[in-house]
Write a structure and sequence with these properties.
Strand content of chain A: 5-15%
CATH superfamily of the largest domain in chain A: NAD(P)-binding Rossmann-like Domain
Shape of chain A: elongated
Largest sheet of chain A: 6 strands, parallel
Largest interface: A-B, 87 and 87 residues
Oligomer: homodimer
CATH topology of the largest domain in chain A: Rossmann fold
Number of domains of chain A: 2
CATH class of the largest domain in chain A: Alpha Beta
Distance between the termini of chain A: 31 Å
Structural class of chain A: alpha/beta
Radius of gyration of chain A: 21 Å
Strand order of the largest sheet of chain A: 3-2-1-4-5-6
Helix content of chain A: 40-55%
Chain lengths: 289, 289
Amino acid sequence: MTLNKDTNILVVGLGLMGGSYARALTKRGHSVFAITNERASLDFALREGIIAGGADFVDEGLVSRAGLIVFALYPHVFLDWVKEYGHLIRPGTLVTDVTGVKTEVVYRVQDMLPPGVEFIAAHPMAGREKYGVENSDERIFENANYIVTPTDKNTPEAVALCEQLGRELGFSRISRLTPEAHDDMIGFLSQLTHCIAICLMNCNDSPHLEDYTGDSFRDLTRIARINDEMWSELFLINRKALLRHMDSFAACFQGFRDMLETGDREGMRAAMRHSTARRALFDKDKPKP
Amino acid sequence: MTLNKDTNILVVGLGLMGGSYARALTKRGHSVFAITNERASLDFALREGIIAGGADFVDEGLVSRAGLIVFALYPHVFLDWVKEYGHLIRPGTLVTDVTGVKTEVVYRVQDMLPPGVEFIAAHPMAGREKYGVENSDERIFENANYIVTPTDKNTPEAVALCEQLGRELGFSRISRLTPEAHDDMIGFLSQLTHCIAICLMNCNDSPHLEDYTGDSFRDLTRIARINDEMWSELFLINRKALLRHMDSFAACFQGFRDMLETGDREGMRAAMRHSTARRALFDKDKPKP
């Protein structure tokens, strides 16, 4: 199991993420093929030279010739695909994905794949507010995190190759988490932040607010522009962890509100000093150990 | 009452905002002087050529010679200053400010100033996460909003001159609001967003979260790095409006949480589509009418 210039890479799903993978890997000299059910996406990718070839149907030849398959589909579509076509994948093929939730996906995919086909899951923590292969861009991986989520069924070789893939894609930080730890983390860092942005955007319909908006409000609501089909699915799949984080945030927010109401200035200041100190840890330009 | 190159401008308070005003106005060819109680700030501003002169005490000559005085102080310091030294300001002088809350400040200042001294309040909606004249920078006004908040006591000439000041500072959008409408707007767009950022930053103390953080979480917590002395004062002065906005947000957030818990996918998607449509109004590059 190796990832080199002879490895035949198949990307299944040519949206923003699949397209960005294809761009990055093609630029690195790999042979990248794609399967998508959107003829327009395939034509675009061929015309732009993002892929060497592909099909707008499940082409058995493309699947069986692949040495590495990357699934870039919505979670339920990914699960359905593996159930229906997983048997086409030849033993020895490495399978990975880009799915944003793991616990409810990884074990089921590993159970469904034929013997000799290893699935090593990964989450590229990158994105844009726009969708589709037309907006794909390998630069979204710069300064971003790539998380591999192995299970007991994974081999060290597959984990190493998946990490190599992350490096070739251009991610600046590669790390490992269990599927459960990943989902807890993503429930907080990504899903909770999206819930907050949606509600901040929706809780005040006064007209003309946009005339006075500064960067703070813009920053906090940037991700309120959201793909409702994809994110509602991700939220529901990770419901338990997300609800826990939403409740923690709501309790903290209520506590701050009560300090304001009772005029507890010192309590508010202590909370602000804590948030200031915590935030310093998250600076992008903080030197990494 | 005019603002031209002969106008003697006095900035009282040489922090980030006073320093940025001084830089911008000096660059535009005005004669800018400053009063601050920090000797080091004064020396820095003189050395950098940001001001033509100044004092680290309330210099009666500087005050009486000023044609325009800009107060860039914390609200309670501003009120105390006017109470103690307001009588030094000569009739015909125009007074303005940079205070981030208006209702509790504007009327009291107008009542305290001597006859013939007009106070026209303004809020430059700009800032940085760093403080002090050393971090001042007139570029913070680019693409930012400048809001004039006149009362019944203000003359059209003073309002026009205050708006001219905003243009000379380099603000891209100048508008007018009543003090009450300003405080309601700022309670939502600025203060509520800061409360949210603080609580998001504080509600999960798990170690190593920073290793996985993407841009979403960074964007939503950028302003969690906050000047606790200034913001606790601003929150408390605007307590009533801020509490109302906090409660609206909390109710919206709870509603979204309940949709998640009950698996109301269509309800969540409708909220996401609403936030997506609303957010488009707030795009920075949206053409202004």
